[in-house]
Q: What sequence folds into this?
């Protein structure tokens, strides 16, 4: 192979293989660490990448088998190329040096670095990666099935039995009881009960509308601009702020405002007389707790803040209900 293919071509192929290895390593970490509740929420909102990621994560054994197959394949080919090139350049001693260098390069640039980055930004990496993996996993399904079959045989031989701790009833087991105990005519009720059980595992951060997607009334804009925003708004409440959302003034209830004011006479000063104090929520609050807080404080909308008090997003009681009932 070394006599037929120029060294420049071999090095180019080697670089591509290392990039592929880094892709496999990084995306594996991202897909395994990504917040599955966040993925499910984005999927219900119509995000195509999230829908594919959700489908992939329903069968993680197939996804992992494909990633390991691909990663080992490219690493094997890379090692073969290094062996040929090293032998051509430096003989047997060159092979040893080449193998050592390849090991270091793979460890640093195809394992440690991509896995670390993926652990920091799992969602940003997992979502686009799903576009690549979903069709490939579908195509490779027969081969992956064989791999998983033999994997399961090895696990059984080694006596690996999952879920050996039967002392406590887990959420998963409780879901099974609900599933088995419901009749076929009560599927919708079953979905709602399943959604309620999940609320303790999902945080406000998982379902909130991100900071950069929040629509509101900026008092630094002209009255005409804000009048148009109010006219076209699909929401019953809008945040009112000065220049940035971090300088939040309050919440405007559009239904009450429009009952009392003629919109054709609108100006920004009117808004300040009709806003109410905003309600802030720690972004780490679970949905089960937040649902109780909404009821206790008689609120329907809140702003999620981080540990420094900076606004990260917005969540409504309707968002929580949507998590409970799903597509019902």
A:
């Amino acid at each position: 192979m070394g006599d037929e293919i120029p060294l420049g071509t071999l090095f180019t192929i080697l670089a591509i293989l290392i990039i592929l290895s880094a892709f496999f390593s990084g995306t594996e970490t991202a897909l395994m660490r990504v917040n599955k509740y966040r993925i499910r929420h984005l999927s219900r909102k119509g995000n195509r990448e999230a829908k594919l990621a959700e489908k992939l994560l329903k069968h993680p054994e197939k996804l992992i088998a494909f990633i390991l197959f691909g990663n080992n394949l490219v690493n094997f080919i890379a090692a073969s190329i290094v062996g040929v090139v090293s032998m051509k350049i430096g003989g047997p001693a060159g092979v040893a040096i080449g193998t050592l260098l390849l090991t270091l390069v793979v460890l640093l640039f195809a394992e440690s670095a991509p896995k670390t980055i993926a652990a920091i930004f799992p969602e940003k990496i997992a979502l686009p990666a799903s576009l690549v993996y979903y069709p490939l996993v579908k195509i490779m399904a027969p081969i992956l099935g064989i791999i998983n079959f033999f994997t399961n045989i090895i696990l059984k031989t080694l006596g690996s039995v999952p879920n050996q701790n039967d002392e406590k009833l887990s959420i998963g087991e409780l879901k099974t009881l609900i599933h088995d105990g419901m009749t076929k005519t009560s599927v919708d009720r079953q979905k709602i009960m399943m959604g309620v059980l999940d609320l303790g595992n999902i945080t406000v951060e998982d379902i909130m509308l991100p900071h950069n997607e929040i629509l509101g009334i900026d008092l630094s804009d002209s009255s005409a601009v804000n009048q148009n925003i109010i006219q076209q708004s699909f929401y019953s409440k809008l945040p009112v702020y000065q220049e940035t959302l971090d300088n939040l003034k309050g919440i405007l209830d559009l239904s009450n405002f429009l009952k009392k004011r003629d919109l054709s006479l609108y100006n920004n000063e009117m808004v300040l007389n009709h806003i109410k104090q905003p309600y802030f929520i720690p972004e780490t609050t679970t949905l089960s707790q937040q649902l109780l807080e909404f009821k206790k404080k008689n609120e329907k909308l809140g702003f999620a803040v981080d540990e420094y008090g900076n606004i990260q997003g917005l969540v409504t009681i309707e968002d929580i209900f949507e998590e409970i009932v799903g597509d019902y």
